[in-house]
Specification:
Radius of gyration: 29 Å
Helix content: 55-70%
Order of helices and strands: HHHHHHHHHHHHHEEEHEHEHEEH
Number of strands: 7
Mean pLDDT: 89
Oligomer: single chain
Largest sheet: 5 strands, mixed
CATH superfamily of one domain: Glutaredoxin
CATH class of one domain: Alpha Beta
Distance between the termini: 47 Å
Low-confidence stretches: 1-23
Shape: flat
Number of helices: 17
CATH topology of one domain: Glutaredoxin
Structural class: alpha/beta
CATH architecture of one domain: 3-Layer(aba) Sandwich
Amino acid sequence: MTRFCMLLVACLALLAAPPARAQEALSEEEEEHLRQKVGEAGSSPVEFIRALEAHLKKYPKSPRRADLERGLAKAAMDARDNRRIKLYGEMVLAREPDDTQLLERVARALLDADDKESAGRALKYARKLEQQIREAAKAPGPDLDPRRKARLADELDRALGKALAYQSRATGNLGKLEEAAALAVRGYEAWPAAESAREIARWLARLDNNDEAVRRLADAFTIADSVATDAERALDRARMGELWRKSHDSETGLGDRILEAWDRTAAVVAARRARARELDPNGQAKDPLEFTLSALEGAPLKLASLKDKVVVMDFWATWCGPCRAQKPLYDQVKKRFQNEPRVVFLAINTDEDRELVAPFLEEHQWPRQVYFEDGLSSLLRISSIPTTLILGKTGQVFSRMNGYVPERFVDMLTERVKEALAE
């Protein structure tokens, strides 16, 4: 479901929901008018905006005005309507100053105006956004698996880079060029991206530091950034040439600067990837044997250590009833191979909330030798639980059993393990 569709559903739910306070209740007449207007809007955010604006024009003192203004701000973001993002977004932020999504979008919309009055307001929101991001980074949060932890760290760094880039633009528009350049440098350090490098160059050029501006534009031009467009890179190239010629009368030597930037930004990206691997050692893994699985107890398991063995993986979850029914059958197969050192059985948990696992094992008296999937289920395309998967001695998938047939499971799995051993 798209964000706009969710917004539409929320608005209709608002009509059906009982008011939190008596004075919030809509009159029957107003409720019917709002229902009609929202229904006529269909699936278009533009028409949705018109519907709510028409409603507020007729009922300017609506007891649900705050909710409707919030709906207008979110719809304006979907419609990419900067004028209304500013209009309704600032109304909402006056009441709800911690709405991170609105802080980011309102600051960006204000900066499109490129005037001092808008810059001052944008700076206030961008600073608030930075504060929230830093607080979120400090918060302990839930016990996340390595993939989610790495993804969250990236999201926070990217958001911080944006917040600082917005502050840079606003500060520069207020005439504080050196401070603007310094803020942009901090943004690039938080999240190396073409936008931040370009922002550094903007203010350095305004300070007549053309050589350093070219260096930063070369970073923007060469850095691996999926958000940067070909059109933006073309503008970076043109601007580099323009600034270089001002100082050197020709483009001689510019190519060397671009090659230096290529090496420099490649090293920056490599360092970020190395940091991501520290949080998620499986982030770049393309093969099962490249994975390291964290354990409920004890040391992580490097699957590469199981090369030349047949590995039987039981993907299960605490909420899965069939997993509980399959467990004694699976244990029968394990018993058949208990004296075969070339076969390894792994219980791999797929719960999102890992804190559920230990109490579940204790309650059901299952062994605590459990590993977490840590992204392996995505690589192996585990789409249902339980799934029993066999890796052959080379580490490639030999067999897959989605679900189980109770009367045949033990013999089927036994035969497939023997076949894998025979290969």
